[in-house]
Q: What sequence folds into this?
């Protein structure tokens, strides 16, 4: 579980899940049952999140921004051909989102600024596509959604994270919203 963290400023990926291969003695696939939940993930020189073969990986209610290659890539491994299985992408705020050769089992309620035109028809009708969110104060690291931004939800039962000294609200059942 990767939960309630601020992950930032990397020259490469911040979360890289690769090749879920069965263990020789137990048969259990490595890189399985991973939860990435309520995190602020930003500032990478590659994809911020790259899933190349995880089993039952869940990306829930994260803000993923300022990633050079893209916020999230879910794809078949170019090295081994392993395909992510039973992936869930729900309630995230992302500047970009890429799927290559794989379709998540559940994909809904995300705010995505850019996605390839040929993928738009494959997205959930509950996604908000093509809208750049209004953040409270992104230059100071406050990537909470400003009130009134589409998808901003409510702050009921929220926890908080701090990015560069600024508090960010992380709602329990919605995308991040300013307090």
A:
């Amino acid at each position: 579980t990767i939960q309630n963290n601020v992950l930032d400023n990397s020259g490469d990926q911040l979360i890289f899940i690769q090749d879920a291969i069965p263990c020789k003695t137990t048969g259990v696939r490595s890189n399985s049952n991973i939860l990435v939940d309520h995190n602020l993930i930003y500032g990478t020189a590659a994809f911020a999140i790259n899933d190349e073969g995880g089993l039952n990986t869940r990306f829930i209610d994260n803000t993923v921004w300022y990633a050079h290659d893209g916020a999230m890539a879910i794809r078949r491994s170019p090295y081994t051909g392993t395909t992510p299985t039973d992936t869930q992408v729900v309630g995230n705020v992302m500047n970009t989102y890429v799927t290559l050769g794989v379709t998540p089992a559940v994909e809904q309620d995300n705010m995505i600024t850019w996605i390839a035109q040929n993928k738009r028809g494959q997205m959930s009708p509950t996604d908000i596509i093509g809208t750049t969110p209004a953040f409270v104060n992104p230059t100071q690291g406050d990537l909470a959604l400003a009130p009134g931004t589409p998808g901003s939800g409510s702050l009921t039962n929220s926890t908080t994270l701090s990015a560069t000294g600024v508090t960010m609200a992380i709602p329990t059942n919605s995308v991040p919203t300013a307090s």
Remarks:
- Confidence is low (pLDDT under 50) at residues 154-179.
- The chain is about 0% helix and 40% strand.
- The two ends are 26 Å apart (CA to CA).
